Amino acid sequence: MITGERMAMVDRNAAALGVARKQLMESSGGAVAGAVRERAEPGAGVTLVCGRGNNGGDAFVAARFLEAYGLRVVLLGRPETITTRIARENWEALRAAEVPTETCTDSADFDLGDPDVVVDAMLGTGVSGALREPEATAAAAIDDADATVVSVDVPSGFDADADGAADDAHESPGDAADDTGDDAAAAPVDADVVVTFHDEKPGLADLDAEVTVADIGIPDGAELFVGPGDLRPLARDPESHKGDHGEVLVVGGGPYTGAPTLAARAALRAGADLVRVACPESIAREVQGFDEGLIVRPLPGDRLDAAHLDRLRSLAAEHDAVVLGPGLGDADETLEAVGEFLGGYDGTAVVDADALQVVPRVDTAATLICTPHQGELRGMGGETAADWRERADLVAEFAADLGQVLLVKGAYDVVSDGETTRVGRTGNPGMTVGGTGDVLAGVTGALASTQEPVHAAAVAAYANGRAGDMAVEENGYGLVATDLLDRIPHALRDEGGDE
Ligand SMILES: NC(=O)C1=CN([C@@H]2O[C@H](COP(=O)(O)OP(=O)(O)OC[C@H]3O[C@@H](n4cnc5c(N)ncnc54)[C@H](O)[C@@H]3O)[C@@H](O)[C@H]2O)[C@H](O)CC1
Ligand SMILES: [K+]
Fold first, then answer.
1. Residue 130: exposed, middle, or buried by beta-carbon count in 10 A (0-12, 13-18, 19+)?
2. pTM of the prediction?
3. Which ligand has the nearest atom to the CA of 122?
4. Which atom of ligand 1 is nearest the CA belonging to 82?
5. Cα–Cα distances in Å, from 357 out to 332, 354, 445?
6. What is the pLDDT of residues 439-462, one digit of tens each?
7. What is the pLDDT of residues 189-198, one digit of tens each?
8. Given the CA of residue 87, which atom of ligand 1 is nearest to it?
9. Residue 177's pLDDT band (boundaries 50, 70, 90)?
10. Are the beta carbons of 151 and 194 closer than 8 angstroms?
11. Residue of 149, 61, 152, 52 whose CA lies nearest to 103
12. Can you tell me whether residue 345 is helix, strand or coil?
């Protein structure tokens, strides 16, 4: 099962692996044509009703496979308004090959005729909101026609991101009064067959239609390996306000000063709106001196202990995510305080460094993202393996046992909650230098304040490694952790963009 939004990420990741979207479209169109051929003999009337996005593009491809039929290719809209390059190229290929095409810009002119099969390729997973004209009129005509309706990917008007169908009406001025009443007009196109791509979409199984999943050649790696597509949900709403992008509390320091500071600065670079550092007062001035953008909340003394718990709890409750561990050290009273804090916390925390060893023995309602390297993983009772595939399986099993998210660092970073496993392949041997893990913990904290935990951890691993790759590309090895900070914002942006 995959949502439309996740599908768009996977699709972008496939492109980054070298499997271009246009290749996928060729498979999609072929699969749609196959579904038509199974249901009608050559010569039968087949009308393709095409929208201006890639859903329509799939049908332009299908048309090349269906020339033996009584074919009509109807584009809803002017060809200049086709929204994507690859759909336009496939439209132009039909024109160049003199495959007959039609355009319909005014819903009053829409005439479906009397085909044996209608291919509904108006809108796929890119749709938002109720159907507009001329799609609304065309949808009503398709529902009224005495034809087998084959929908491309999803019935047009169906919301593949919600659990169920879009609930707004596609009423057309002339045809809204359906004899089954308003509800029929409120539904997406009433498909007989849905040829959906790559994986089942939520809600399709509830439709009264035959749903087939077509494999369009997306490699498994486009889902497993974190890629630029995973950055899509980080795009910001221009209307956003301070606080919309998360407030992060870093709890760290005492024996060490650099670690909590790096984590906190990384969280700012990863887009958190506010980052506060709760650290022993012995290092508070030094932490503040590193970066005027940080807010420091000193805790009495020179290391974390149980006397700080009340203060920590009230601070934690005011933040979207906590990063717990960088530079805390492993004094008994500190680890005890970490355990007690987690035991009473029910928010989201990234746990790193010495704090990790506490996790297996703590009973907590919190959502934890644990970021061990392989040595720390063994310290927690987990197993590792040299082969990354084996390691991924072991990490998934251990995450399931813990009931938490693991981000196990290595040449291939493995992220899992026991159900979903992702692998980050960015990074380089220069990153074994001290402090890069603190940066990763901070980035993870910032992302965990707005994203699902597995996605946050996966994107953090990807971006941290990518920042390291950018630094090495510019300067060669001799990388230091602070080199990553300025590069985090670039590493969190998809500079390749969309096709
Ligand atoms: N990996 C894959 O699954 C592949 C899927 N493909 C197909 O691409 C579509 C998604 O394409 P996209 O271009 O993102 O969007 P759509 O074609 O669904 O629609 C965009 C189109 O529709 C207009 N629009 C948006 N909302 C409305 C509305 N309420 N009423 C009318 N029109 C609307 C918008 O302006 C655009 O013009 C996916 O479903 C697959 O079919 C590719 O084959 C690649 C591989
Ligand atoms: K469709």
1. middle
2. 0.91
3. 2
4. 37
5. 12, 6, 19
6. 999 999 999 999 999 999 999 999
7. 999 999 999 9
8. 13
9. very low
10. yes
11. 52
12. coil
Q: Please name every residue paired with 422 in a beta bridge, in sequence order, or none if there are none.
A: 415
Structure tokens at 173: 């001025």
89-125 burial code (b ≥16 CB/10 A, e <16): ebbeebeeeeeebeebeebeebebeebbbbbbbbbbb
Q: How far is CA 131 from the centre of its chain?
A: 25
The preferred substitution site among 153, 199, 204 for testing ligand 1, maximizing ligand atoms within 8 Å of CB, is: 153
SS3 label, residue 285: helix
When pLDDT is cut at 50, 70 and 90, the band that residue 128 belongs to is confident
**Which two tokens mark 12?**
């972008």
Q: Is 90 annotated as a binding residue?
A: no
Find the angle CA(476)-CA(479)-CA(485) to the nearest 5 degrees: 120
Mean pLDDT computed over 289-293 = 92
Distance CA 479, CA 499 (A): 34
Is 435:456 a contact under the CB 8 Å cutoff? no
Domains and CATH numbers, the chain: 4-218 (3.40.50.10260), 228-491 (3.40.1190.20)
- Of the listed ranges 110-119, 177-186, 226-235, 327-336, the least confidently predicted one is 177-186
- Give ligand 1 pocket residues (Cβ under 6 A): 7, 11, 21, 24-25, 28, 51-58, 83-84, 123-132, 135, 152-153, 197-198
248 with 271: CB under 8 angstroms?
no
ipTM over 0.90: yes
Residue pair 452/255 in contact (Cβ under 8 Å)? The answer is no
Higher pLDDT, 223 or 167: 223
Task: Give the torsion sign (CA, 183, 186, 192, 197).
Answer: negative
Q: Determine the pLDDT at residue 499.
A: 52
